[in-house]
Amino acid sequence: MKAPRIILALCIGQVLFLSAQPVLSQSETLDIIRYTPPAGWAKKAAEGVVVYSDINESTGAFGILTIHASKPSAGTVQKDFANEWNELVVKPFKAETNPTPEIQNTPEGWQAAVGGSHVEVQDGVKAASILTVFTGFGKTASILFILNRESYVAQADAFVQGVKLDKTKALAKTTPVRSEPSPSSQRDPFPDKPGYQPQQPLAGTLKETITIADLAGTWNGGGASVTTYVNSSTGNYSGTDTTFYGESYRINPDGTFTHSFAGRTGNHTVRETSSGVISLSDGFIIVRFTAGERRSTYKYQFIAFMTLPNGGAVLSLLHIGDNEPALTPERLYMNCGHSKGYINCVSGEEWTRVVK
Questions:
Q1: Beta strands of 23-75 (E only): which ranges?
Q2: Tens digits of per-residue pLDDT, 173-182?
């Protein structure tokens, strides 16, 4: 991916930085990030971060590269970029608070946000910052360049293009999502409530937490509605509209998936095929479509995962807007139940896994 061609504020100055030894250009690894450091740059490492620097004291030219280990994603690459920009650029330097990043997709299923601005690093010394934030599989990782010569931009560009991210490690480090309220053993999370339809016995066993591995398999979902029209003047029947749809996700153990959709309303039929990546993050299931007819991201609140005696499963979800918080346990208690033997919520979705 290409670093933005920022017009740099060139200023002769000197930066006090880390004392370290030059390194050779051999492949190295930090957490889920595999990279080749710039040749001849000095290296300094600490817990969860590696810093490389190239400083010419005679001319005042400098380039500083900081690589940060992964952390749980906030759910989207835009949110992760905003959080990392605030922590890594705004707080330590005088920088604009909300640059608009360029968003790119990688063939491996990651998203990258790249953005930058001018900064003041020390005693009024001007420089430019270029932040790259990778997001995917429930994790996010950041790479920050601080430099004061345009000649360093090509090295920054080449470095980022050479970065490889290990999604297997990312999935292994992802914290399983937990349902709210969390069923322990087979405690009923949504018992009978006065004035509500009586609950039926649960048809299977609820899992307290899930991982991406639990989602592997083929899942089906769908819905339908029928609208009948009546002439307001005569009261006579004026027709009926029927809308229905069905969709299927085939999810692999690494979180990648293929998706098919078929729907019909009136005389109009829609068929779509797409693919993407599913990840888990802080109680949410993030479904990101990266190829095919559908190119979008959906955020679901995880409600329940029930395994059935025949080997199937029911996944209960609530679609949540990108900027909306999760429903509280109190609201879930009033909106969810199991009157049909599985957990379902008002305006929720239920996916059923096909028995092998």
A1: 28-30, 33-35, 42-46, 49-56, 61-72
A2: 665 666 554 4
